[in-house]
Amino acid sequence: MTSWMESATWALVIGGLGTAVLCHAIEVGAQEPIEPRAAPVQPGTVQPPPGPTQVEPSPGPAQPGTVKPGTTDPSATTPTPRTDQAIAEQQRREEQERMARAQRYREEHHHHGETYVAGFGGVTFGSTTTNMEGRGSALGTSIDNPSLSDSAVYGLKIGYFHPGRLNWLGLELEGFNSTPHMKESGGLPGTHLRLSTLGLNVIARKKLACRDRRDDREPDVRDARYWDTDDYSALHDNARCPIQVYAGVGLGVFFAETSNQFGRATDNGRAGLNALAGMKYFFNEHIALFAEYKFNYVDLKFDQNQMAGGPTAGLNGTYLINHVVGGLAFHF
Question: 295-327: per-residue pLDDT in tens?
């Protein structure tokens, strides 16, 4: 009896242990997640790695001043009338300022004539006379053509070049003085001669050694509507083209006076030829150094008393006079 009871007790213990193990296994199996069965992978495709599922946040209320993608801001497409007026006013003011700057530039650089003054000095050389003949009591006397002595010459000039496209053409007024005394020749004694010349010349010039023109206009006023086709400064061109050659010809008005042992004689206001050619070098747009050749052609007549109350004797002739001068000019 006792052995049966022990056998029954061990059977109950072993059954209880088996039941506990089986329940624990069932509980663990229920807690593990069941993986979904993967679909078959198609050839040429890559399956993304498994991971936690991303949950998109729900859209919240729109913030002021923000625009959703794919939509337009009504306030940007429909400006208020006050904003339109402010933009138009700003554009009008900017245009007025551009026009004012363009006008200031034109006033400083465009269509201004070029005036200059100059002083010069040099030498009168190689001058001669021709067609000499006696007058008065000396009429019919054989007179050789006397040569003229070399002398100093000095003078001043003022000129003006036209504006714009005619800036190569100008007018010049000059006056100079020299003393090319007549040398003794044949029956004519040596005679002091003072000759003053007033010349009105037409001048043409050519600018050389020019560098590229620099555009000093501001970038926002370089549009063609602000400018004429020949906007430039002649003075600026003097600095840009430092070498200028020129030539001129015009009327010369001569005032002559002679004196010797027999007395004095004058011949004033005689018209003749005054011609010149030269070259200028500009250090800047205002200051230039120049060298120049001049040529004068004039007929002069002198009548001279041989003694107080006595007969007069005179001399007619043509004077051919050469000058070489150099000087300094100021352009403005």
Answer: 999 999 887 654 444 556 677 889 999 999 999
Give the Cα separation of 295 and 297 in Å (integer): 7
Fold of 105-331: Porin (2.40.160)
> How far is CA 83 from each of CA 94, 96, 132, 134, 230, rounded to the nearest angstrom?
17, 20, 93, 97, 41
pLDDT for the residue 55: 47
The phi and psi torsions of 186 (rounded to 5 degrees) equal 60, -125
For 9, how many CA atoms within 13 A lie in the half-sphere containing its CB? 6
Q: Are 188 and 144 in contact (CB under 8 A)?
A: yes
Q: Tell me the whole-structure pTM to 2 decimals.
A: 0.62
For 290-329, the three-class secondary structure string (H helix, E strand, C coil) is EEEEEEEEEEEEEEEECCCCCCEEEEEEEEEEEEEEEEEE
Which among 182, 195, 128, 176 has a CA at the least distance from the CA of 293? 176
- Please enumerate in sequence order all residues whose Cβ is within 8 A of that of 210, keeping only pairs 6 or more positions apart, or say none: 237, 240, 241
The Cβ of residue 233 has, within 10 Å, a number of other Cβ atoms equal to 20
Mean pLDDT for 58-73 is 53
Give me the residue spans of the domains in the chain. 105-331
